[in-house]
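Morning run. Coffee first, then this:
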Amino acid sequence: MEVNLSNIGTVKSILAKHGFTFSKALGQNFLINPRVCPEMAAQSGAGHGVGVIEVGPGIGVLTCELARLADKVVAIELDKRLLPVLDETLAEFDNVKIVNADVMEIDLHALIADEFAGMEVVVCANLPYYITSPVIMRLLEEKLPINSITVMVQKEAAQRICAPVGTRQSGAVTCAVNYYAEAQMLFKVSAGSFMPPPKVDSAVIKLNIRKEPPVNAADEEKMFAVIKAAFAQRRKTVLNSLSNSLHIDKAAVHSALAASGIEDNARAEQLSLEQFAQIADNLHKTQSKK
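And here it is:
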């Protein structure tokens, strides 16, 4: 029998039956707006021949919608207390598997190989705010065989991730995400769509994984170190930020910037990914000559 997981009374009754209480530490706010999850699932790429990885299924509201569309859903849930709840709310589906694990520690390549042989794979999740960036970056940096990542995040985080690189709203995470994927804002979700309601609004974004990076970096790790250092002190110039954060002599940073065609007074938010890659390469050359 189908359970209405958008009904507050139903949700409270199920949670009370299993003695479940919300964990602030795990950022648990469960979706109760009946329109959000069907829309997320529809735009995630879930469908025939597709397997879906869900992170943090909660009580299974989004999981149900994904299971209706996809061939298989594997939901990674950290909180053991939710396992009996999910057993009840997902009882009607035989194409859902719950894995009790931490998404930051589980071997995702092995999971995809074991669970989704022959399928295209997408990720779809309502991410807890406190771990949004680490989860997104892990999914991207692992270079998984996935097509896209559709996630609900805090509205401000969504705006920063989806901002064009080289604009005032961009940050280190904007550049990092843009290296691996094309980000698009899908729709906004009000705080009242959750139980308990968070203090901020949310938004659903989609990251379409690039087949090739948009720039050629001689050393990805060095480029990301430069990006992180450049944005570490946003109000300072790139010259000062890089010198302070990377503990490099200003003269060496100046040389790398000049070789990259960048003025000393430029700020991180003004630079393109190509320029960050050039700075990293030229810094490496400058230091190699020593």
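Residues 273-288 form the longest helix (16 residues). Good start to the day.
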